[in-house]
Amino acid sequence: MNYIGIDLGTTNSAISTFDGEHTQIYKNPEQYDVTPSVIYFDKRGNKYVGTRAYNNSIRNEANSALLFKRFMGTNTKIKIKALDKELTPEECSAEILKTLFGYLPEEIRQSNDTGTVITVPAAFNQMQKDATKQAAELAGIGNVALMQEPVAAVMSVMQHRKSDGIFLVYDLGGGTLDVAIAESISGKVNLLSHGGIAMCGGRDFDRIIFDNVVKSWLMQQFNLPEDFSTNPQYKTLRRMALWALEKAKIELSSRDEAIISLPETELNVFDLDEEEIYIDIPLTRNEFDALIDEKINDSINAVRASLEKAGLTPHDIERIVFVGGPTQYKPLRDKVAFELGISQSTDVNPMTAVAEGASIFAESIDWSKENRSRKSSKGSLQTSEVDLQFNYLARTPSDKAKLVVKAGSANSNVEIQIDNIDTGWTSGKMLLGTGISTHLPLTKRGVNIFKIFIFDENGMPVNLKEDTIEITKTAASIDAIPASSSIGIEARDKIGGNLVLDYLVKEGDKLPVKGTKIFKSEESLKAGSPQSIRFKLWEGEISDPIEDNRYIGTFEIRGTDFDTGVIPSGAELVLDYEILDSGNIILDISVPTIGNSFHSGRNFYSRESGQIDYSNASELVEKEVETIEERVAEIEQVVDDKQLDDVRKKIQHAKTLEKEHDAETAKQAMDDVQDAKKILAKVKKNNLKEIRQIELNNLKSFFEETLQQFAKPIEINKYDKLVVSAQRSLENNNNDFDGYLDELRQLNFDILWKQDWFVVNKFKYMIENPYQFSDTHLYETLKQEGIIALENDDIQKLRMIVVQLAQIQIGGASLQDDMLASANIIRGS
What we know:
- The protein is α+β, with helices and mostly antiparallel strands.
- Among the domains are: about 1-160 and about 355-365, ATPase, nucleotide binding domain (Nucleotidyltransferase, domain 5); about 380-475, Sandwich (Immunoglobulin-like), CATH 2.60.40; about 485-600, Substrate Binding Domain Of DNAk, Chain A, domain 1 (Sandwich); about 610-685.
- The protein is about 35% helix and about 25% strand.
- The chain has 21 helices and 42 strands.
- Strands 1, 2, 3, 4, 10 and 11 form a six-stranded mixed β-sheet that branches. The chain has a six-stranded mixed β-sheet with strand order 18-17-12-13-14-29.
- A hairpin with a 5-residue loop joins strand 5 and strand 6 (about 45-50).
């Protein structure tokens, strides 16, 4: 079996093999261990990948694809001018994977007996992981499993160092930070905690230097337009300046000062006064350190958060292992180690550790299993000639493995001998008696083969059909991997009850894990119906509002998915789930009433499930920022919480980034918004009563000012009673407040939804804001159908279209949108 590991990086990628004993990094044609994750197309459409592509991309970014890993799992396209087409991030990643695979010997490439592990950051969400698997499929790579980068880094560390203790892996790459805390005991590794930051790496350092040093210097020296940062006329200048500062940044690894330098002849760019532009900017270590200080502090805080999750302090950590290109900068390593108070280690090659660790992990996978579970550590052999059972440890990182021989009906005078085929070691003859327990020495890493000899009561050898056992001495073994985030399914806690998250796994729970959950359908679904039963999945632990978590996707059972019958309201829905080592989710839903089952591979994480196109997301970011600002303004009127300052800081940073109108900064801005939502959840937890009062007052005001005129007397009476009950519950600190609040929201929505004018206005708002919808094709189709329905005054048809639009709306622009698209299942008992 060939074991392959691939570190598919933001800026550089690498490939390694493992033969059971040793890893081998395969170099690119330029004889470097790592290959730039860049694709370039010339005017004739010829494609180049790697070093040559990177060199060409410096002057011609319009025909290049780079940094696409940051957009995996989104609808963001990479535009290639030379081809007059767009590539998806998955297609770009597939080109990198194919190129890396091309470095391998032909006998490995052509073999069907190969298993490949591709690494992903711990901070990757489910759609990003799914997109990585799609890239592997596009590259034609079979037998693929995913593994989190910090786990791979830990495996690499264990290959080089066997001493016991707790160590920390600080993996800072071109685009992401991954942190892993692991405990090693006799080669067995327990991953205690991991975390990280989705957008924190060398690329971010480059942007900081550009924005604070290069850009300001150019604006002072030359007459450049105010929109220089986004002006297409200066795109080549910006790209070449980034290339020059990257060279200077690398030079600072060995010197105290470097020059960001580009002569006029190389740039060939002119300012508004037709003056030829050049770059000649000195950059010192002190300046660079000051500029990246905030990012490094963020990374140190991420480490501390991981330590806290594991219940550890820096004093518990023996050493910190640095992985990733940016960690080759010594002042960075020194600062991180000093601030944490943990000794540094140089156990691994920071550029190749992840790929090597991935190839080692590939050996531990049982590639015959579809779910890519790990090989069993237990082995057994039953001899039929003499009734004996041999039980042994088939996989271990130790220098010896325990063997137990159990006697069935065999004569107790039988003797047994175990020999190592490679070394000549022998156990000597051992009398069976009532059984034998011994240890077999493992002299080499990889497979150790032992031969069994049995002698009958007369001392004569017994011929055995099966007389060998194989024991693998592994580089390391990881007992369990903690989940990097909590994953829950949105459902009502009872009929007409609150929407809650029913968790499949909580952050820190050990992976892999599998289980079964019972749900019930909230409404009926007929065969052939365009409607669906929706299982909405969210990543995060924000209980209210659920929409503040990161949306993963919706697994739908549509009426068109089965031919006959009806799934009645209240029907049992049996959910079998499995979450793999990588964090990927596999779902199966059985519906006994119709005798059908549905697998998540059919429509889960589909492109119509809320993936954002960050190249066209500035309006969406602006809307999200405005919503958070409004929430903060309301809260700060009644709450004095210092964490609100952190929310403002995140939002201000998002607003600054949003002005640049490019995909990368839009992605960073949306991450800032998500961080702000997490902090707001903490604020609410600390000030629950005051914020609940705000929510109740808002609902009451909305009803009185807008809806009461349309409500029936019975609805007004019900609303008033619910408000009184909610207020009493709030004052008495009862747990049923959220239930009353949900009933009030539902009543508000029910009154609105019966109004034709509301349906018409909702549809008009939706078609005037296309940026809120992920699936452009489906959006346009529904838009046209809705316009026709509106022209024909077919309001009932329009209602159905508004519901369908809400289901592909990113995040939900309002409470009404969320209620239209919410899951329609009930949590079982």
